[in-house]
């Protein structure tokens, strides 16, 4: 599907949908829990739908009630799935559920779309094998499809985590292992997402100890209790609207955001303030006022999902902007460093690719046709570029915005000034 975005300012307010990261953690933990859990205001998107269906396949009973999800959990006793688990485009679902599926002795098979089948899972597969599971990739290339079975017995493992989701998977599954687990982490990107996972474990009363970010020791034979929790708004999705206001010099209110939540992409607010925007806290969110932007050097290691939108924003900033220390952005749905350089170059951007990021100078973007590469965050970032470009921008594979934000384009249209 192609969508054309026309230049123009934005105004008014927009309600940000629930966090994908929180929603998927909530679904998995509720499925593993004993009893009946309520997930309030969850995100319903292609990614969370994939997780919901996978949790059902493992025995979770999930119903909808007034917009909430009610989950009757398995008490940690998952059922062998009746078929292959297809996670579609959801890497978070794949990696977190690989750990969960290692808890019982039956076989599980995981696959996904073409992008998922290119994403590396080898370090997590090796760690699960160290901890007593039996897991392998069918093509012996460290990428899905993955076949595995448990039970997870505990023990020790050493793992490099270029994506935080490897560690999140182990942290969620190891409390239900038969014995204690010791995890040594030799590399860790995206630490705020691990903080989010630890917050969920703390709320559940899970016992663990840690030495900074390098070692985690988790007691086995624990249980997850049922819970009730509302899902906060998604800062990753909010980033596109924040950047839309920034590049067009607009004033926009974003509702549904919790400034105290542990989501890493809150850091985008600080970055945009450093670039010149004004940020005001509101009772139910924040208001941003776009002002003349200036460049700078920004470390995105904790917030790789923000790279596409900030790359667009940097094109409108005076001077040079360096987006750095984010090599893991190459391991997402696409190589987002290469893809953003490619597509923004088509629009006239002065942009250079680096091994760990991008160098971007003030550019007069022009309209035209660009490729979304079937990557939801690239698609939404290019829509932001279209608002500030010199002419209309037509984006291919625009339908993939639904992976995390099904109503993105109608919402964007609703706040665009005529």
SSE blueprint and pairings:
Elements: E1 3-5, E2 11-15, H1 20-32, E3 36-40, H2 46-57, E4 61-65, E5 68-72, E6 85-86, H3 91-101, E7 108-111, H4 122-130, E8 134-137, E9 146-149, E10 155-161, H5 164-173, E11 181-188, H6 191-203, E12 208-211, E13 215-218, E14 228-230, H7 235-248, E15 251-255, H8 267-274, E16 278-282, E17 285-289, E18 297-299, H9 307-314, E19 320-324, H10 336-346, E20 350-354, E21 357-361, E22 368-371, H11 376-388, E23 393-396, H12 408-415
Parallel strand pairs: 2-15, 3-14, 6-7, 10-11, 18-19, 22-23
Antiparallel strand pairs: 1-23, 3-5, 4-5, 7-9, 8-9, 11-13, 12-13, 15-17, 16-17, 19-21, 20-21
Characteristic key phrases:
12 helices; four-stranded mixed beta sheet; 2 domains; globular; alpha/beta; UDP-n-acetylglucosamine1-carboxyvinyl-transferase, Chain; 23 strands; 418 residues
Mean pLDDT: 97
Multimeric organization: single chain
Query: What structural class do you assign from the helix and strand content?
Result: alpha/beta
Please count the helical segments: 12
- The total strand number stands at 23
Strand order of the largest sheet: 2-15-17-16
What CATH architecture of the largest domain do you see?
Alpha-beta prism
Name the helicity range. 25-40%
């Amino acid at each position: 599907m192609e969508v054309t975005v026309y230049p123009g300012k934005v105004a008014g307010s927009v309600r940000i949908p629930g966090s994908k990261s929180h929603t998927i953690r909530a679904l998995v933990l509720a499925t593993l829990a004993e009893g009946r859990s309520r997930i309030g205001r969850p995100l319903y998107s292609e990614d969370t739908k994939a997780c919901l269906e996978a949790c059902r396949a493992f025995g979770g009973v999930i119903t909808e009630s007034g917009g909430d999800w009610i989950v009757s959990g398995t008490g940690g006793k998952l059922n062998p799935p009746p078929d292959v688990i297809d996670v579609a485009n959801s890497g978070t679902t794949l990696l977190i559920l690989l750990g969960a599926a290692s808890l019982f002795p039956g076989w599980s098979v995981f696959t996904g779309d073409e992008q998922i089948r290119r994403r590396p899972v080898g370090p997590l597969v090796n760690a699960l094998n160290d901890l007593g599971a039996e897991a392998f990739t069918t093509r012996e290339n460290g990428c899905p499809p993955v076949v595995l079975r448990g039970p997870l017995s505990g023990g020790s493992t050493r793992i490099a985590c270029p994506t935080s989701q490897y560690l999140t998977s182990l942290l969620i599954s190891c409390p239900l292992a038969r014995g204690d687990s010791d995890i040594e982490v030799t590399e860790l990107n995206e630490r705020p997402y691990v903080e989010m996972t630890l917050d969920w474990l703390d709320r559940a009363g899970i016992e663990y100890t840690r030495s900074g970010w390098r070692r985690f020791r988790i007691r086995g034979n624990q249980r997850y209790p049922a819970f009730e929790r509302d899902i906060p708004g998604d800062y990753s999705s909010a980033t596109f609207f924040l950047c839309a206001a920034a590049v067009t010099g607009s004033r926009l209110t974003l509702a549904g955001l919790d400034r105290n939540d542990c989501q890493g992409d809150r850091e985008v607010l600080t970055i945009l303030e450093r670039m010149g925007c004004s940020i005001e806290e509101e009772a139910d969110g924040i208001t941003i006022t776009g002002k003349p932007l200036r460049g700078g050097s920004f470390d995105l290691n904790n917030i790789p999902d923000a790279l596409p939108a900030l790359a667009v924003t940097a094109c409108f900033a005076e001077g040079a902007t360096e987006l750095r220390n984010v090599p893991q952005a190459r391991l997402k749905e696409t190589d987002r460093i290469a893809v953003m350089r490619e597509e923004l170059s088509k629009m006239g951007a002065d942009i250079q690719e680096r091994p760990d990021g991008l160098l971007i100078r003030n550019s007069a973007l022009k309209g035209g046709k660009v490729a979304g590469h079937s990557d939801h965050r690239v698609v939404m970032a290019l829509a932001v570029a279209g608002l500030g470009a010199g002419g209309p921008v037509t984006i291919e594979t625009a339908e993939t915005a639904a992976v995390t934000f099904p109503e993105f384009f109608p919402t964007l249209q609703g706040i665009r000034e005529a």
